[in-house]
């Protein structure tokens, strides 16, 4: 018996998924985009679906896209069918995405963690996670973040391409991010762009120093109208209960932001939060994603609808 190593087609791993690459003039970088449509997309030619965008696409596409085959018809927690748009990196940026994503996901002027230095980033080199050049790039991007440009890329460059190619319902466009992606999601939610349903999983918020606190207070002072907008924030249990760097820089900051926002809610805004049981920062991203879907895109199961109608 013999076996052969091959490069399988995308469809063998990610059903109903198409892959695109594009250059962003706004960001000045290249991106890969995985677009996954619901299973009955072709057989329902008049139906339109909300688009949900996810940064960190190289990781999130293989983690989340396969579940689109099942979650619509889940008899317990059915999810509204949607088009999932995962945005990641291509070429050399794939190997150094830990460094590149800091450019795209941190708000402009975001303060550095107290422990961040060239010496501390060398630990990533010693661990084999980055090479020396990528570590230097990481520090540069942490010091010069540009989430405003990445947000403009999603809204002004990518979304028009998505709406031209797929049947999109713009009434409830979504965004979900995890870790620094969660920080980006909160930053984007407070810009009042196309994203009306936003999920932030374990956001990398520095307590009362992150730019999102200032942005939130500015929106509250202006009495901005956030009607029909939702923000769902999750944090993993062990990020709160276990002593680690995540406790200080994720658990505490997330709790402070939820408390701060709860004390002075934005007009019309729906804020919700959930603690993901047992998970750590390394394992909680898919659970956070499903928590967001259940909170913001749930739909009634056929069994419950029959019971309700009596």
Mind explaining what this structure looks like?
One of its GO terms (molecular function) is hydrolase activity, acting on ester bonds. This protein is of the alpha/beta class and 310 residues long. The protein folds into 2 domains: 12-106 and 148-309, Rossmann fold; 111-144, no CATH class. The chain has 11 helices and 8 strands. An 8-stranded mixed beta sheet has the order 1-2-4-3-5-6-7-8, sandwiched between helices. α2 (97-105) runs parallel beside α4, α2 runs parallel beside α6 and α3 (118-126) packs antiparallel against α4 (132-143). The longest helix is centred in the middle third of the chain and has 19 residues, at 147-165. The chain is globular, with a radius of gyration of 20 Å. The termini are far apart. Mean pLDDT is 92; it is low at 304-310.
